[in-house]
Design brief:
single chain; 170 residues; alpha/beta; 6 helices
Length: 170
């Protein structure tokens, strides 16, 4: 509820935020900046702490939920629902490997409050699996995209690296 005083003397309230509900993940990606952080004794914010945080941001219209992997957070659907109750549209970023039919069906219940879902895909099957550190990652991500593509705006997020650069056009 407190405005931000800018250098030019004007006041600004955030209408968009990027929020990382967890640092937990089910993969072991080569480029992950959080691998070292996961070794630290850190805890996620509780649902009540998240609600309290939201109580202090009055102008919020959009949130991008990023992570590690947002679907490792047990109360992620409760969090998404809270954003929707407050009129805040969500954009979800995921590696897609934890989205099965049940998860996709739960997401569809929040269809009006979710602006889109971004899936991490870093190359063709073998390359993607190597980068993500799991031999199932590519197939699970493609399956997840197919489960939600008719109900949500879907985008692909790619970390461009030397080992996948030549595959990007494919």
């Amino acid at each position: 509820k407190k405005p931000i005083l800018l250098e030019d003397g004007t006041v600004s309230l955030p209408s968009d935020i990027v929020f990382e509900p967890t640092t937990k993940c089910n993969l072991n990606c080569q480029m992950c900046y959080q691998r070292e952080e996961r070794k630290m004794d850190k805890r996620d914010l509780s649902f009540d702490e998240i609600k309290k945080m939201l109580d202090n941001i009055s102008n919020l219209k959009r949130v991008s939920l990023i992570g590690a992997e947002i679907f490792t957070k047990p109360d992620i659907f409760q969090i998404i629902e809270e954003f929707i109750k407050r009129g805040i549209k969500s954009y979800l970023t995921t590696n897609g490997t934890l989205i099965n039919k049940d998860v996709a069906d739960r997401l569809k219940k929040f269809k009006k409050g979710i602006r889109g879902i971004g899936f991490s895909l870093d190359g063709l099957k073998e390359t993607h699996n190597r980068i993500r550190g799991a031999n199932f990652a590519f197939d699970k991500t493609i399956e997840a995209i197919n489960l939600v593509k008719n109900d949500f705006n879907v985008s692909i997020n790619t970390v461009i690296m030397e080992e996948n650069l030549e595959e990007l056009p494919k």
